[in-house]
Amino acid sequence: MKTDNYSKIKRVLGILLIANVFVTIVKIIIGYMTNSVALCADGFHSFSDSASNIVGIVSITFASKPCDNEHPYGHKKIETMASLLICVVLILLGYNVIAKSIKSIWNPQTIVVDVQNIIIILLTVLINVFVAYYENKKGNEYNSSFLIADSIHTKSDIFISIGIIITLIAIKLGVSPKIDIIVSIMVALFIFHAAYEIFMEVASVLIDKNIIKCEDVKQVIYAFDEVKDVHKIRSRGFKDHVFLDMHIVVDKNMDVNELHKLEHSIEEEFTKKFGTTVDTLIHVEPYRVK
Length: 290
What we know:
- There is one protein chain.
- By secondary structure, the chain is mainly α.
- 69% of the residues lie in helices and 11% in strands.
- The protein has helices spanning 3-34, 37-63, 77-106, 115-141, 145-172, 179-206, 214-221, 256-274, and strands at 227-237, 241-251, 277-287.
- A 3-stranded mixed sheet has the order 1-2-3, with helices on one face.
- The chain is elongated and about 85 Å long.
- The mean pLDDT is 79.
């Protein structure tokens, strides 16, 4: 990832932090005013958005450090680990929401519903729509795994808040307040689902899942007439920086200068085709007529 991209990502996270803090305060205050377990749960879920923004700013600062002797591949996996931390926080929040929901079954409270509060919550939904869209857009633009993971986290807020608005309206129309407990459990399920999505994205990096398909690699390689065959193709890394290695078979009479030029041409072609940095390691084998 380019150094200036890290600065842009931190700027994005700063903007999102302000928006999420506002949403968190509004939801928690209205949640306590209405005695809604579901809304309070959603408020604390939004608090995790703010916390993840802070974690993101810190992790991006460390991830932007250049390569050194002890970390020849750079520090970008710090960003990946921060995404994993978001996943853990979501699981803990989901557990907490379910625990409170079960407790409310034996200790029910009267839920006070005010039309003005519903309108305010609707405003927070609109803010979350902006946050999720903006964060996902910038995450893809800057190839930031953290921004993309955090946008999944934020996206769950939208559906949760809509469910809570429907719940408050239903109670206002005379539906049993027990619906609040049902919705709070649904909130927890959304939180767990968001955690699962983030975990799967993070796991693909940590277990070195293929970033570039072998078929796509072969398509690039076979465009070079000098290459007779390619095998043992492996790729890992990130969307913005791929580490690719392979074995290629070339004419045994090619000299070192020709091979060096060929390898550079191949690397440049990969970077051009995939629009990202592709750090290639090529093992050369002589072509032998069978």
